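Today's session is about reading a structure prediction critically. Students often jump straight to the picture, but the first step is always the sequence itself: look for stretches that repeat, for charged clusters, for runs of hydrophobic residues. Only then move on to the predicted structure, which in these notes is written as discrete structure tokens rather than atom positions. Here is the chain we will use throughout the hour.
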Amino acid sequence: PACGSPVKVSGGTPQSDASEGLLAQAEAMALAGDQQVAEQLQLHGQLVAARKRSSRLLLEYGNVSSGRGSKRSYTTFLKVVSTGGSIAETGSVVKVDFNINPGYSKPTSTAKEHDRKLGFAFEYAMARQYPCYMTVHFKPELSLPKLTIEFVVQEEAR
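Below is the predicted structure for this chain, in token form.
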């Protein structure tokens, strides 16, 4: 889709808006000797092959809150939304460290278990918004470095 256009999603996966007819027309132009179309088709083939060789991991993070004033509870979360390539969705994230005092190196809490709804989560009550940095630890086989997300909890929209 063009930039700014909505992306059609089916079963949690973005769907291509390319049509078989358009592809057939481009192939016919390439066979007829249109050099630019032939180059674009070749590039397209290379990009599709590269995508099949790559792996993707889509993470969602944020917070939910409840209560008012000094009784406000914030639950910060991080979950794996989808994966692609050779990465399995389950077990790709081993643990998440949550740190509400980023100036201090030791995390406030570490979540090693995740629930179905929120994923890895940390709940804390405070009368105001606060930073909650998340450090994501991936399983060693992925050879990915730790990912630090500098997040500040938000009150939910009213």
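Discussion point for the tutorial: The first strand starts at residue 9 and ends at 10.
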